[in-house]
C-alpha cells in the first residue's frame, strides 16, 4: 500500500485549519464562507469538517477543526479524522501551525489512508492533500511506508505469515534497499550455536530460523533485534483460547523493527545497520520443549524453563548474544514480550528500558517530536534475584507475578555486555480501538521515536 501526498496542482481546494473557538480565522474568511460556517455551527472541534460550496455547488474551500490543546493531547492525530469526511478531491492545507504540529498533521493524513485490505475490500479516503510547504515530504512518505509495512505484517494471520513468509518479507525488503541477508534454519541453528531459538521453534511444522540483515558500510553500528514469534500457543503451558486469539501479533517486535529498518535505509542514514530476527512458532508437539527443561544459551548461561509461554525472551537472548559479539555502538530489541507491560501502561505507550540515561533522554525528546509516546521503565537491580532460580543461571518465568516486564528486561540485559549501550522495548503492537490515523489492528510503536532520536544517539 502506497501512502503518498498528491502531486502538486494549482487547482487544489483550500483546506483551512481552525482551532476551536478561533474567531480571528473565521472572521477573515470571505463573507459567503463566513456566513456558511456560522449557519452550519462550525466550531473547530478536532476533526470537524465543513465544505463550503461555490455558487455552482462545487467545493470552494473546506474548513477542518484542529480542536484545542486538551483535545489534541488526547488524540495527537485527531485532525486526520477529517480526511475520511471530505469529498473526493485534492486539497491544500492552509494553517497557522508550528513546524512540529504541521509535520504531525501531514503524517496523520498519510497514515489515515492505511487500510488492511488483503482479505476484503476496505473503503479508503478519497481526499488527498498536496505536501504542505515547510515539511520534508519524502521523509514523511518513507515513515508512512515503514509504518504500513509494520501494520501489514502484524495484521496478516499466521497461516500466511509463518517464519518462512516472514523470511520472504525480509528478503524482499533487503532486495529493495540493496541489503544482504543470511538465514540459519532448522538444525543448522544448533550447528551455529543458537540453541534456544531452535528449542522454542522445533515443534512447529515450519522450521525456526535466525534472519540476519545487513546494510551500510560506514558510520556507527546499530543492531536491531525483533521478536519474531509468528504464533504463540504458549507451548505445553498452553494459553487459554481467549489469550491465544491475538497471538498472530506476537511477531510485532520483528514487524516494528522491519518498519524502522525500512525508514533508516530509505532515508539513507549514515550508519551500519544490522537486523536480527529469530523467527519461530511456539507450537505443541511431542518434541516441544518442556517446563523444567534447562537450556544452554549461545552465551553459555543456563536457563531453567519454568513456563514455556515465556518463550520470547529465550529466542531474543540468543539473538542478543549474537549481536553483542560484534560490539555495536547501540543494540535495540523490540518485542511483544509481557502482559505486565500492557497492564502497566496500556496499548498507547511504548515502555522502554535503557542502560544509558543519555539514550533515554534522547528517546523522550524524539518521541515528543514524532508524536510517538514512550515511557521509561526501570532496570531495577534488586529484582535480579527474582530471575536466579539456583538450579540454573536464569529463570525464564519467575514465580509470584511481580514486576513481570522488569524481570523480563533484566533477563535480556544479561545477554548484553555491561559496557554496551542497550535499549529494550516491551510493546503491545496492537490498537484495540479505531482512532484517527490508527485503525484497529496492528500498529508500530516506538519506531518513529527511535528514528527521530538516532541522530542524537549516534551523532549522525
From TrEMBL:
GO terms for molecular function: manganese ion binding; metalloaminopeptidase activity. Residues 307-314 form the Cytosol aminopeptidase domain. Signal peptide: none annotated. GO terms for biological process: proteolysis. Gene3D superfamilies: Leucine Aminopeptidase, subunit E, domain 1, Zn peptidases. Keywords: Aminopeptidase, Hydrolase, Manganese, Protease. It comes from the Bacteria. PROSITE patterns: CYTOSOL_AP. One of its GO terms (cellular component) is cytoplasm. Belongs to the peptidase M17 family. This is Leucyl aminopeptidase.
Amino acid at each position: 500500500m502506497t501512502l503518498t501526498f498528491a502531486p502538486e496542482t494549482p487547482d487544489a481546494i483550500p483546506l483551512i485549519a481552525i482551532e476551536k473557538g478561533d474567531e480571528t480565522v473565521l472572521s477573515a474568511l470571505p463573507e459567503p464562507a463566513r456566513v456558511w460556517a456560522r449557519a452550519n455551527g462550525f466550531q473547530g472541534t478536532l476533526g470537524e469538517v465543513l465544505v463550503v460550496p461555490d455558487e455552482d455547488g462545487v467545493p470552494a474551500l473546506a474548513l477542518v477543526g484542529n480542536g484545542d490543546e486538551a483535545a489534541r493531547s488526547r488524540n495527537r492525530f485527531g485532525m486526520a479524522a477529517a480526511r475520511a469526511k471530505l469529498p473526493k478531491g485534492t486539497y491544500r492545507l492552509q494553517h497557522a501551525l508550528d513546524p512540529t504540529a504541521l509535520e504531525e498533521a501531514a503524517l496523520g493524513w498519510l497514515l489515515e489512508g492505511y487500510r488492511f485490505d488483503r482479505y476484503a475490500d476496505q473503503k479508503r479516503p478519497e481526499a488527498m492533500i498536496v505536501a504542505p510547504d515547510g515539511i520534508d515530504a519524502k521523509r514523511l512518505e518513507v515513515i508512512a511506508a515503514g509504518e504500513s509495512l509494520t501494520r501489514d505484517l502484524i495484521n496478516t494471520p499466521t497461516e500466511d505469515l509463518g517464519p518462512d513468509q516472514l523470511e520472504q518479507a525480509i528478503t524482499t525488503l533487503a532486495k529493495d534497499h540493496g541489503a544482504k541477508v543470511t538465514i540459519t534454519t532448522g538444525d543448522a541453528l544448533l550447528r551455529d550455536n543458537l540453541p534456544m531459538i531452535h528449542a522454542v521453534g522445533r515443534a512447529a511444522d515450519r522450521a525456526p530460523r535466525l534472519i540476519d540483515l545487513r546494510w551500510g558500510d560506514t558510520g556507527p553500528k546499530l543492531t536491531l533485534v525483533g521478536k519474531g514469534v509468528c504464533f504463540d500457543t504458549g507451548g505445553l503451558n498452553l494459553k487459554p483460547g481467549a489469550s491465544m486469539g491475538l497471538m498472530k501479533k506476537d511477531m510485532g517486535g520483528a514487524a516494528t523493527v522491519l518498519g524502522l529498518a525500512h525508514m533508516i535505509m530509505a532515508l539513507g542514514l549514515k550508519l551500519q545497520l544490522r537486523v536480527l530476527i529469530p523467527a519461530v512458532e511456539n507450537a505443541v508437539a511431542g518434541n516441544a520443549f518442556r517446563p523444567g527443561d534447562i537450556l544452554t544459551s549461545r552465551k553459555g548461561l543456563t536457563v531453567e524453563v519454568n513456563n514455556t509461554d515465556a518463550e520470547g525472551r529465550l529466542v531474543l537472548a540468543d539473538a542478543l548474544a549474537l549481536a553483542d559479539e560484534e560490539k555495536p555502538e547501540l543494540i535495540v530489541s523490540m518485542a511483544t514480550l509481557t502482559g505486565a507491560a500492557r497492564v502497566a501502561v496500556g496499548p498507547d505507550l511504548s515502555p522502554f528500558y535503557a542502560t544509558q540515561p543519555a539514550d533515554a533522554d534522547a528517546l523522550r525528546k524524539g518521541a515528543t517530536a514524532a508524536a510517538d509516546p514512550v515511557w521509561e521503565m526501570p532496570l531495577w537491580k534488586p529484582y535480579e534475584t527474582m530471575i536466579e532460580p539456583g538450579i540454573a543461571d536464569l529463570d525464564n518465568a519467575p514465580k509470584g507475578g511481580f514486576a513481570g516486564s522488569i524481570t523480563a528486561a533484566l533477563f535480556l540485559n544479561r545477554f548484553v555486555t555491561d559496557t554496551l549501550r542497550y535499549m529494550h522495548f516491551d510493546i503491545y503492537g496492537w490498537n484495540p480501538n479505531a482512532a484517527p490515523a490508527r485503525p484497529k489492528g496492528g500498529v508500530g510503536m516506538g519506531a518513529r521515536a527511535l528514528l527521530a532520536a538516532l541522530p542524537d544517539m549516534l551523532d549522525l
